C-alpha cells in the first residue's frame, strides 16, 4: 500500500517537456485517470477520497492550476501519513515472536512500517518541494523568509507563474499548506523530511500567520484567520521551536530576521533581504528566549560558528558572537540576563572536543573581557567571583569541621585552567588574528579551578585593568600552588607558571615590583594560603587544599618554615629567569640593592642608639617591649632582604639581571653609594672591611670598562652622569690615594663626555687596582718574569697559571692595556729572553717548594726536551721521574706543567715513555713516593698525557697506537666510571688517526661500544662511548664504508637505539651528531660530487 501511494505521488510529480503550468495540469489529469482505471490504485483512491471528505480546505471549483496541483499533493501526502499511522499502530500492538523462533545475534530487529527507502524518500522530497514552492512560499509577505527568486532559477520561474495574476485568499491557502505540513510532521519519518530542508519556510509561515499585523482591506471576512487560528499558529511555532535542535532554530531565526541590503557585485550566495519591522522584533524576542534558556549560549555559538576552520573569518564570527552575548536584550532586565548568561559563558571553557573547544574558548574569552570592561559590576558579580571562588576559599579556609572549607581537586584544576585559557597562553598566546592550538584538557576535575583562571587571563592576551586587579588578589595563592607543583609531577605547573609570567609581564612596573616583594616575603602576605592548610597531591595529577597536621616538635616546625621560605625564593627566581626579555628582574634587583644601601646608611645610627643605655625608668613596659620588638623586626627584614639578594645573584644569570646599559649604571650607582656610606668615619670601608673594598674596586672597574667601550653616545654619558656625586665623594673622602685618583679621573671622563682621557684609565679595569690583590699579583709577576720560554704552546696560554701582567711602557708612555696602544705584554709562558739557566739548576728549582719557581723550572725542562738538549737526553730517566712526581701535585700550575713535560717526552721517546705511562694508567702510580689515596686522580692525569700523545703521533699512530688501543679497551671495564670515561675519550682520539690500521680491531671495538651504550648505567660513560663513534666517523670520513664495512650497521642501530631509548639528553645529542656524520658519509658515497673536467683521448 505504501508503495502504491508513493507511485501515485511519483506520477503526479514526474517531469514533462512542457511549460510548467501545462505540465501541472497534465500530470494531475494523468493521475486521476490512473486512479480510476488501474486496479493497483484502488486503495489509494479510497484513502484519497477519505482524506478529501475530511479536508474542509479542499476546493474543486478553483481555476488556479498551481493551487489545484498543490491540493492534489496535499491529499496524497495526507493519505500516505494516514496509512503509515495505521500500520505503525498495528506494528506496536503486534505481540513479540514466540519463543520457538528465537532471534540469533546476527538477525536484525524488524523495521517499523514507516521506514522508507532512499528512492521513496527522494519521491517524497520532490512532492514536498512542490508543496513549498507552489503552496507556501508564494503566499509569504514581502521580506518574510527567503524569496524563491533568490534560491534558484526554477524559483524565479515559479514566482513569475504564481504571482503573475491576483492571488485570492492568500492567508487561507498559506494556513492550509502550513497546517498540512504540521500534520505530516506528527509522524517521525515524515517530520525528518519536512524539517531537514523546509524548517525555515514552515517557521516563516507560522510567524506570518500568528504575528503579522492585520491591514484593513487586505482580505475579505471569509479569508481572514480567526483569533483562534492565529493562536493555534503561535502555539505551533512555540512547540516547533522547542522540539527542534536549538542551533538550527537559531540559525533559521537569524535568516528570518534578515539583514541590511548589500551594495556591490552579487556573490554566489544571495544576500538576505530586509525583513518587516514586526518580524525583526519577533525574531529578536525569540532569539533572546533561546539565549536565556539552559544551554542557550552554547546553542547560539554552535548556530553562528558552525564548523569553523580557525581562519580570519572565524575570528570575526567569534567577536560578533561575543558582542551578541554581552548585549542585553531590551525586553529583559540586565541583572536577570547576566545572571543567566554569565555562568554559561564560563561553561564554554570546559569542552573536551578539540575543534569545539577552540571556537568556544575564543567566544568565551572575548565575552568575558567585554563584560568585565563594559559591565564591570555584573562582570565582577557573575564572572570573576565564581571564577575565583576556589582560590579565595584557599585564603579563608578554617578548621571548623565543615567539609566545604577545603578545596577539592576538580575545583582548583578548573579554576586554574580557565584563568590560563582566558589570559592568552594556553592556546598559543593568540591575539585576535592568530590560529589556535588547543592545549589538551586534562581528565582531572580539581585542576578545573586553576584551569578556568588560565583560559580567561592567558588566552585572551588583552591586558585589562579589572582582570589584572582581580588576579592580583589571588596571585599569592597561585604562586603557592606553583611552588607546590615544582616539588611534584603535576599538570598544573605549566598553567600556573604561565599565569604568573603573564601577570608580571603585563602589569605596571610599580605594581609588578610590589608583587615580587610580596611573593618573596619582603612584604606581608595577607592573601596566601590559610594557616594550618596546605596543598597535597590529587589523585588525577592535580592538587587539593587540605588540613595540615600540626607538628609537635618546634625544631621540625622551624625547619619546615625555613626550608619552605627558601624553596619559595628558588621558585620565584626561576620565574624571573623566564622573564629574560623584560626589564623587571633587573629593576627588582636594583630596587633591593637601593634598599640595602639605605639600610646600610641607617645602620650606623641604630648602632649608636644601641650603644646608648636605654632609660627604662622613663618608659612604660609596653614601650620597652615595642622598642625591642621593633629592632627585632628591622633585623629580620634585613636578613630577609639579604637572603633574597643572595638567592637572586646565585640563581639568575647576570645577563637577565642587567640586560640594559642603564641598569648596569644603576647597579654601579648602588655599589658606589654603598661604598660611600661611612667614609667620614675613622675606619672607612677601605680600611676595616675587605669585602667593601673589593666591592668598591669592582664598581670602579665596571665604570672604567664602560668608559673604555667604543663610540659612547651622548645618551650613555647622560645616563652615567648619576655616577658623578658618588665618584666625587670617593675622590675627596676615601682614605686611599689610589682610589681617590681613579675616582677623580673617572669623574673627569664622564663630566667631559670623553674629551679628557687619563693615562691610567685602562689600568683601572685590571685586578691590580684592588689593593687586596696587589701582593699576590706582585708575586706572580716576579715568578713570570723569571720564565725563559720564547715559544709557548697553545695549552700554556690557557692554563690557570698563565695570568697576563701588564707593564708600563719604558718610554714614558701610557700604561699597557688591551688593544693596539698596549706597550709590552708578557705572560707566564711567553718571555722573549733566551734560557740562561743550566740543566742542573732547573732540576734543583723543579724541587723548590715555591710554586711559581717550580712551575717555571718544569716549563724550562719541557722546552729543553723539545729542543733535544744533550743533558736532558742523557738524564731522561731523571726528567721522567721528576715529571711523574710533580704530576701528583695538588696545584694546577704544577701538574699542568708536568703534563706538558710528559707529553713532550712521549713525543720524543715514544716506545719507552708510552710503555711506562700505560702501566701507570692501568695500575696507578708506580713511584715509591706516590700517594695511594690520590691514585685515581693521578691515573686521570696520566690519561690526559696519553690523549695529548695520541694527538701528537700523526702518521705514526698506526705503528705506535696498537698497545694504546689494548690498554684503553681494558680501561673501559675499570670499576671507576671516571677511568672508563677517560679510556673511551682517549680511544676516540686515537682511533680517528688509525685509518686502515683499524680494520682488524673493528669487531672488538664495535662490541665494546655497543655493550657500553646499552648496558652502562652511568650517563657520563655512555656519552663517551657515543662520542667515540662520532670521532671515529669524523676521522675516517669517506673511508668509513671501507674500514667499518662489517660493523657499520651495528653502530647505526646502536645510535638509533640511543636516540629512541636513552634517558640522558646529552647522550642523545651525541648520538644525533654521530648520525649526522654518518649521513654525510653516505650522501657523499651515494651522490659523489660532480666535477666538470675535460678528457682528451688521442686516437690511434
Tell me what the structure shows.
The protein is an all-alpha fold and 1100 residues long. The chain is 64% helix and 1% strand. The strands form 2 sheets. Strands 1-2 form a two-stranded antiparallel ribbon. A hairpin with a 5-residue loop joins strand 1 and strand 2. Helix 8 crosses helix 9 and helix 40 runs parallel beside helix 42. The chain is elongated, with a radius of gyration of 46 Å.
Keywords:
Rtp1_C2; two-stranded antiparallel ribbon; elongated; mainly alpha; 1100 residues
Low-pLDDT parts are 262-271, 425-452, 457-461, 682-688, 765-835
Number of helices: 47
User: What's the count of strands?
Assistant: 4
Going across the biggest sheet, name each strand in turn: 1-2
* Structural class determined from secondary elements: mainly alpha
**Cα separation of the termini:** 101 Å
Strand content: under 5%
Mean pLDDT: 76
Helix fraction?
Answer: 55-70%
Instruction: From the alpha carbons, calculate the radius of gyration and give it in angstroms.
Output: 46 Å
Characterize the main sheet: 2 strands, antiparallel
Shape designation: elongated
Topology:
Layout: H1 2-13, H2 20-37, H3 42-54, H4 65-93, H5 118-135, H6 153-162, H7 170-184, H8 188-211, H9 227-243, H10 246-257, H11 277-292, H12 296-305, H13 312-326, H14 334-347, H15 354-374, H16 376-396, H17 409-421, H18 449-458, H19 465-486, H20 493-506, H21 509-519, E1 533-537, E2 543-547, H22 554-578, H23 584-611, H24 621-651, H25 654-657, H26 661-676, H27 685-688, H28 690-707, H29 714-720, H30 724-733, H31 737-751, H32 774-785, H33 794-798, E3 805-807, E4 824-826, H34 839-845, H35 851-867, H36 870-874, H37 876-887, H38 892-908, H39 910-923, H40 935-953, H41 957-971, H42 977-991, H43 1002-1015, H44 1019-1036, H45 1040-1043, H46 1048-1061, H47 1065-1086
Antiparallel strand pairs: 1-2, 3-4
Helix pairs in contact: 1-2, 1-4, 1-5, 2-4, 3-4, 4-5, 4-7, 5-8, 7-8, 8-9, 8-10, 10-11, 10-12, 11-12, 12-13, 13-15, 14-16, 15-16, 16-17, 16-18, 16-19, 17-18, 17-20, 18-20, 19-20, 19-22, 22-24, 23-24, 23-26, 26-28, 26-30, 28-31, 30-31, 34-35, 35-38, 37-38, 38-39, 38-40, 39-40, 39-41, ...
Amino acid at each position: 500500500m505504501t508503495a502504491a501511494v508513493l507511485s501515485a505521488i511519483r506520477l503526479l510529480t514526474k517531469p514533462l517537456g512542457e511549460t510548467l503550468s501545462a505540465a501541472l495540469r497534465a500530470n494531475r489529469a494523468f493521475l486521476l485517470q490512473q486512479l480510476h482505471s488501474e486496479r493497483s490504485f484502488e486503495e489509494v483512491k479510497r484513502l484519497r477520497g477519505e482524506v478529501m471528505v475530511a479536508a474542509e480546505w479542499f476546493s474543486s471549483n478553483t481555476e488556479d492550476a498551481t493551487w489545484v496541483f498543490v491540493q492534489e499533493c496535499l491529499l496524497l501526502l495526507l493519505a500516505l501519513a494516514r496509512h503509515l499511522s495505521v500500520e505503525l499502530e498495528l506494528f506496536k500492538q503486534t505481540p513479540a515472536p514466540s519463543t520457538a523462533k528465537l532471534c540469533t545475534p546476527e538477525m536484525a530487529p524488524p523495521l517499523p512500517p514507516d521506514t522508507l527507502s532512499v528512492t521513496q524518500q527522494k519521491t517524497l522530497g520532490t512532492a514536498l518541494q512542490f508543496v513549498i514552492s507552489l503552496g507556501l512560499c508564494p503566499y509569504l509577505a514581502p521580506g518574510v523568509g527567503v524569496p524563491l527568486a533568490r534560491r534558484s532559477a526554477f524559483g524565479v520561474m515559479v514566482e513569475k507563474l504564481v504571482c503573475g495574476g491576483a492571488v485570492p485568499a492568500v492567508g487561507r491557502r498559506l494556513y492550509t499548506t502550513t497546517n498540512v505540513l504540521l500534520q505530516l510532521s506528527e509522524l517521525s519519518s515524515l517530520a525528518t523530511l519536512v524539517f531537514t530542508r523546509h524548517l525555515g519556510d514552515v517557521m516563516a509561515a507560522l510567524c506570518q500567520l500568528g504575528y503579522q499585523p492585520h491591514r484593513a482591506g487586505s482580505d475579505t471576512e471569509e479569508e481572514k484567520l480567526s483569533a483562534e487560528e492565529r493562536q493555534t499558529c503561535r502555539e505551533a511555532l512555540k512547540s516547533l521551536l522547542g522540539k527542534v535542535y536549538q542551533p538550527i532554530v537559531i540559525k533559521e531565526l537569524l535568516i528570518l530576521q534578515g539583514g541590511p541590503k548589500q551594495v556591490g557585485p552579487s556573490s554566489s550566495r544571495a544576500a538576505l533581504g530586509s525583513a518587516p519591522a514586526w518580524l525583526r522584533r519577533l525574531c529578536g524576542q525569540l532569539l533572546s528566549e533561546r539565549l536565556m534558556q539552559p544551554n542557550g549560549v552554547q546553542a547560539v555559538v554552535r548556530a553562528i560558528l558552525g564548523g569553523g576552520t580557525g581562519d580570519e573569518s572565524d575570528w570575526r564570527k567569534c567577536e560578533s558572537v561575543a558582542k551578541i552575548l554581552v548585549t542585553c536584550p531590551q525586553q529583559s532586565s540586565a541583572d536577570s540576563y547576566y545572571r543567566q548568561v554569565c555562568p554559561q559563558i564560563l561553561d564554554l571553557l570546559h569542552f573536551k572536543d578539540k575543534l569545539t573547544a577552540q571556537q568556544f574558548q575564543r567566544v568565551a574569552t572575548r565575552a568575558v573581557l567585554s563584560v568585565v570592561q563594559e559591565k564591570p559590576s555584573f562582570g565582577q558579580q557573575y564572572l570573576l567571583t565564581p571564577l575565583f571562588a576556589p582560590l579565595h576559599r584557599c585564603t579563608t579556609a578554617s578548621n571548623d569541621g565543615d567539609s566545604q572549607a577545603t578545596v577539592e581537586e576538580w575545583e582548583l584544576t578548573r579554576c586554574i585552567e580557565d584563568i590560563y585559557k582566558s589570559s592568552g597562553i594556553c592556546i598559543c598566546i593568540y591575539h585576535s588574528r592568530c590560529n589556535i592550538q588547543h592545549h589538551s584538557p586534562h581528565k582531572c576535575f580539581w585542576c578545573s579551578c586553576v584551569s578556568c583562571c588560565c583560559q580567561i587571563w592567558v588566552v585572551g592576551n588583552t591586558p585589562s585593568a579589572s582582570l589584572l586587579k582581580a588576579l592580583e588578589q589571588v596571585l599569592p595563592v597561585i604562586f603557592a600552588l606553583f611552588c607546590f607543583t615544582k616539588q611534584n609531577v603535576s599538570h598544573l605547573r605549566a598553567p600556573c607558571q604561565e599565569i604568573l609570567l603573564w601577570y608580571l609581564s603585563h602589569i605596571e612596573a610599580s605594581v609588578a615590583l610590589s608583587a615580587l616583594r610580596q611573593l618573596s616575603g619582603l612584604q606581608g602576605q595577607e592573601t596566601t594560603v590559610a594557616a594550618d592548610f596546605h596543598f597535597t597531591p590529587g589523585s588525577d595529577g592535580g592538587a587539593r587544599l587540605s588540613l595540615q597536621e600540626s607538628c609537635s616538635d618546634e625544631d621540625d616546625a622551624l625547619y619546615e618554615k625555613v626550608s619552605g621560605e627558601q624553596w619559595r625564593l628558588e621558585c620565584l627566581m626561576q620565574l624571573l629567569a623566564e622573564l629574560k626579555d623584560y626589564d623587571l628582574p633587573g629593576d627588582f634587583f636594583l630596587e633591593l640593592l637601593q634598599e640595602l644601601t639605605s639600610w646600610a646608611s641607617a645602620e650606623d645610627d641604630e648602632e649608636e642608639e644601641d650603644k646608648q643605655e636605654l632609660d627604662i625608668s622613663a618608659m612604660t613596659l609596653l614601650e620597652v617591649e615595642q622598642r625591642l620588638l621593633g629592632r627585632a623586626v628591622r633585623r629580620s627584614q634585613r636578613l630577609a632582604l639579604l637572603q633574597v639578594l643572595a638567592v637572586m645573584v646565585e640563581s639568575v644569570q647576570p645577563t637577565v639581571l642587567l640586560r640594559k646599559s642603564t641598569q648596569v649604571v644603576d647597579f654601579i650607582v648602588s655599589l658606589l653609594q654603598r661604598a660611600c656610606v661611612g667614609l667620614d668615619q675613622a675606619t672607612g670601608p677601605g680600611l676595616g672591611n675587605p669585602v667593601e673594598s673589593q666591592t668598591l674596586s669592582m664598581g670602579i672597574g665596571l665604570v672604567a670598562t664602560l668608559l673604555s667601550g667604543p663610540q659612547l653616545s651622548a645618551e650613555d654619558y647622560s645616563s652615567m652622569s648619576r655616577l658623578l656625586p658618588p665618584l666625587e665623594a670617593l675622590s675627596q673622602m676615601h682614605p686611599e690615594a689610589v682610589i681617590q685618583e681613579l675616582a677623580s679621573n673617572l669623574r673627569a671622563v664622564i663630566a667631559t663626555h670623553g674629551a679628557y682621557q687619563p693615562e691610567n684609565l685602562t689600568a683601572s679595569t685590571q685586578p691590580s687596582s684592588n689593593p687586596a690583590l696587589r701582593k699576590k699579583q706582585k708575586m706572580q709577576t716576579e715568578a713570570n718574569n723569571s720564565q725563559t720560554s720564547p715559544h709557548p704552546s697553545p695549552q700554556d696560554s690557557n692554563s690557570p697559571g698563565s695570568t697576563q701582567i701588564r707593564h708600563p711602557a719604558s718610554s714614558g708612555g701610557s700604561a699597557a692595556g688591551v688593544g693596539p696602544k698596549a706597550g709590552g705584554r708578557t705572560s707566564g709562558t711567553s718571555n722573549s729572553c733566551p734560557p740562561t739557566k743550566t740543566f742542573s739548576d732547573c732540576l734543583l728549582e723543579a724541587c723548590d717548594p715555591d710554586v711559581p719557581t717550580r712551575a717555571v723550572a718544569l716549563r724550562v725542562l719541557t722546552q729543553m726536551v723539545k729542543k733535544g738538549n744533550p743533558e736532558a737526553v742523557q738524564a731522561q730517566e731523571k726528567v721522567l721521574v721528576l715529571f711523574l712526581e710533580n704530576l701528583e701535585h695538588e696545584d694546577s700550575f704544577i701538574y699542568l706543567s708536568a703534563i706538558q713535560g710528559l707529553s713532550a717526552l712521549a713525543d720524543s721517546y715514544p716506545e719507552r715513555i708510552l710503555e711506562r705511562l700505560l702501566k701507570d694508567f692501568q695500575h696507578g702510580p708506580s713511584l715509591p713516593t706516590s700517594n695511594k689515596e690520590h691514585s685515581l686522580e693521578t691515573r686521570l692525569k696520566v690519561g690526559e698525557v696519553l690523549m695529548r700523545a695520541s694527538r701528537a703521533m700523526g702518521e705514526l699512530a698506526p705503528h705506535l697506537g696498537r698497545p694504546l688501543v689494548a690498554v684503553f679497551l681494558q680501561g673501559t671495564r675499570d670499576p671507576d666510571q671516571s677511568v672508563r670515561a677517560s679510556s673511551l675519550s682517549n680511544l676516540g682520539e686515537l682511533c680517528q688517526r688509525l685509518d686502515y690500521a683499524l680494520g682488524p680491531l673493528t669487531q672488538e671495538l664495535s662490541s665494546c661500544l655497543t655493550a657500553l651504550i646499552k648496558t652502562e648505567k652511568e650517563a657520563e660513560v655512555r656519552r663517551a662511548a657515543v662520542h667515540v663513534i662520532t670521532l671515529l666517523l669524523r676521522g675516517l670520513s669517506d673511508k668509513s664504508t671501507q674500514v667499518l664495512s662489517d660493523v657499520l650497521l651495528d653502530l647505526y642501530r646502536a645510535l638509533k637505539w640511543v636516540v629512541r631509548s636513552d634517558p640522558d639528553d646529552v647522550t642523545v645529542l651525541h648520538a644525533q651528531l654521530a648520525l649526522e656524520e654518518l649521513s654525510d658519509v653516505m650522501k657523499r658515497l651515494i651522490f659523489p660530487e660532480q666535477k666538470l673536467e675535460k678528457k682528451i683521448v688521442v686516437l690511434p
